[in-house]
Structure formats: C-alpha cells, structure tokens
Amino acid sequence: MLKREIIYSRFFLEWIQLILMKSAIIIGSGVAGLAVAVRLKAQGFDVTVFEGGEQIGGKLGILENKGYRWDTGPSLFTMPTLVDELFTLFNENPTDYFTYQQQEVICNYFWEDGTRFSAPKSMEGFAEKAASTFNESQKTIADYLHRSSLKYELTAPLFLDQSLHKLSTYASFKAVKAVAKMNQLDLSSTLNKVNETHFKSKKLIQLFNRYATYNGSSPYKTPGIMSMIPTLEMQFGTYFPHGGMRSIVESIYQLGLRHRVNYRLNEKVTAINYDGNKATGITTKTGNYTADVVVSNMDVFYSYDQLLPSLKRPNKILSQEKSSSAIIFYWGIKKQFPKLDLHNIFFGNDYEQEFDALFDKKKLANNSTVYVHVSSKAQVIDAPEGSENWFVMVNAPTNVGQNWNAIVAAARQQVIRKLSSCLGDNIADYIEVEEVLDPIKIDDRTASHQGSLYGTSSNSKFAAFLRHPNFSKQLKNLYFCGGSVHPGGGIPLCLKSAHIVSNLIAE
Known about the structure:
The protein has helices at residues 2-20, 31-42, 81-88, 123-134, 138-160, 173-180, 191-198, 202-209, 230-234, 246-258, 300-307, 315-318, 351-361, 404-423, 439-446, 463-466, 491-506, and strands at 23-27, 46-50, 62-65, 68-71, 77-78, 100-102, 105-110, 116-120, 238-241, 262-264, 269-275, 278-284, 288-290, 293-296, 325-333, 343-346, 370-373, 388-396, 431-437, 478-480. It is of the alpha/beta class. The longest helix has 23 residues, at 138-160. It is globular and about 65 Å long.
C-alpha cells in the first residue's frame, strides 16, 4: 500500500510541475539560439526550437565534396569555456562530448614583398618575435598588448557580459570603474590612429588593424577600444574543435536532445504573435504555438521585416551601417603547402583603400587581403591524402545590387594571383574542387540581411549602444540573441548574447 502511495505522490508532483512549467520558443538554430535553448531548459522551461531549414547551426554549416570537407562559416574559435559551461549547467563533463586543442601558432602572415610572420600563441612570444621581424621595440609591443588586455578587463563586464540597455547594468562597481577610466579606452580615436601612435612599422600597424575585421568593420573608422580584440587570441588562446567548427553546434544540439529540448526542423516561423504589449507565441505553416517567452535568433532586421510587420520598427537601429560581407572560395587543393598553417593572412598593399572600397564605394578593392583557413592542417581527414582543403575568403561589401558574377570572377583572378605570388606556385593548377559563396547566397542561406556577417558594423564609437538590445522595448516576453544584436557577431559574442538573454528572463 505504501509503495502505491509513493507512486501516486510522484505522479502528482510531476503533474503539478508540468502545469507550472513555463514554455519558451526559440526562432532559429544558430549557435546563440541553440545555447539559449539549453540555458532556458536548465532554468526549468519547456523549450522548443523552430528552424526553417533542414539542418541546425545557422552560419556554422558543413560542405563535403570528393573527399574534401569544409566548415562553411566562422573558422576562428576562441574562449571555448563559453561552450563548456553549457554542459556544466546539467552537471555533465564537457570533455565527454566536446573537445578541442589549442593552436601553437595564432596565424601566419604574408606580404607580397616576401615578408612572413608566424604569430606565437602567447603575448610574450608575440612581442619578442614581432620586435625582431618588424624592427620594433619589444617593450613597446608588450606594453600595447598589456593595455589591450586592460581594456578587455575594464569593458567586458559592461559591454559584453550584460545588457547595455538596462539601468541596472550601470549600478555595479565594475561599471563605475569602467566609466571612471573611460579616457583609457581610446573611444575618441580610431583603431588605426591608436596603432600608428604605438608603432612605426606599417606592416605591424596593418597586422593590428586587421582585428577590426573580427566584427566586420574598418580600422579607419572603428574606435580604438577595438585594440582589445588581440586579447581574445593571445590571452585566451585560439583553438581547433575536434570534428571541426561544426562540432560546436552539433554538441550543443545533442546536449539539448539529451535534456528534452524540442527541435522542429523545416518549420519556418512566419509571424511572432502578440496581444497588446505582450508576445504570446508564433505562427508557422503548421499552425499557431503559444509560449510564455519568445526568443528570436533570426537577424533582427528580418525579425521585424518578416515576423513583426505591424509593429513599430526601430528605424534608427535597423538603418545602421551594415558590417562587411564576404566572398568565399572552397577549394580542394591537390597539393600540400608547408608554409601554411590553420589560419593564414595574405595582406593587400593598400589597406586603407581596401576599406574605403568596402564601406564607401561598396565594391572590392583592386588588391584585397586574403584569408586562407586550412582545417586539414589540424584534422587530416578533412582532405584526401596529399591534398588540402582551403577556405579562401576576401572581405566584400554587403549586397546592394552589384553584379556579383563579375565581382566574384574578378576576385577569383585576384586571389589566385596573390596566393601564387606569395607561395611561389601557380595555385590554379591544383584546384580540383570549387564551391563559391557570395553575399547574395549568404543572405539566402542564413537570412543575414544583405549578406552582412555581423549585423551592423562598429564604425562608430556609439556602435555598441546602437545595436539592438537583447529584449523588446515594445513587447514583454520577447527577446533577441545572435550576431545582429548586442553584444555583436562572432561565436564568443553570440554565446554571450545567449547568456545575457537567459539572465534577463531569469530576472
């Protein structure tokens, strides 16, 4: 009799829990959407993720052809603990499901005059080697990197870890400290001016200027605070996840499955529903779904344009300058190149002209910088024996109606010329597989407005405050995560946006 009463009691408690359990709907399964789904599940929500495509992952896709494998989107992985902590929410050991290795070399840099620089992983090693290569003072480089680290420590608690659009954010001691030391953040200068102040070498200035591209901006416009970005690589390290970049989203997805997050693929959301000033759920081709909380991981422009067409648009935010886009060639190369590492940069000769073309003229420069990612350097199974898989990218303007067939054809010739010159071999002879991605395809496949990789650019000292907040100011229970909202694009910031959203909901 006692055993039966215990069973009935447990059944009653579970029934009560189901009645009281709040529900959450996540629109889109990019890395931020997947992360916020498991975070809300850990808070006790009944969570359903709606994805319009056949696969989860957003920009973190995968391409396979004739024995070659490419990660189609982001290729740089830093701050892996942001992924690890998702597993610890459920008392799981991250290494049982997701592993990675730190890279000894951050990046190989090439210039057409024959200069090469292989950047070590540590600040000390970088300062020593860069001083020798670029004829700069080691102390000057070390001081610059130290200042970069201090900028990150001052601003991360304010700009990256919390909502910038809540008054409570500015009430903490860390916020007061950051504001008090605002003059040390170089907000009134550009990244290029900060770098020119510290260094004489044009090549070293160019190397540090390139960090503006991490959020799709111009070093000649973005504020000097962006000089903190090298900290992400040198202080926290760069990593390669076993299984490739795709394994990041796959591991979070599997985590969700183990803990009963619901995923509905091939079910595109067509509207966010609301009653008065409160979001109530969504509509898909299948029907209407209600929820206590709705989180959009969709590009914020399309969230309003397609899902909330009757709601007043935040035009000042949505009309902000877009970040850069990209042209990407996925090449199967039937040869191995020892000069290359996992990450490689081949600089153009006129960096300022590159960014003027991108943002002011909306075209490609005549001599663009080229990025080459070769995951088979870290994971040999990504290419056939004796071959390499090249992810070759040039920064491109967003799509505003240009002739992309002509631009891509010209870019291909330019890239082959530059790589052949720097590597001393005719690259065209070794391309046996080719796939191409341009801004139009990026928009079509990932719903990124105009093909923008990072939402809005950071070409203004007010850019951080002009990003869309992680919550709706018009509708209660509606939230936003992902690269098009605060704190920005790139895997670490997308994961931080998921954390911010889950904290806002918990509060």
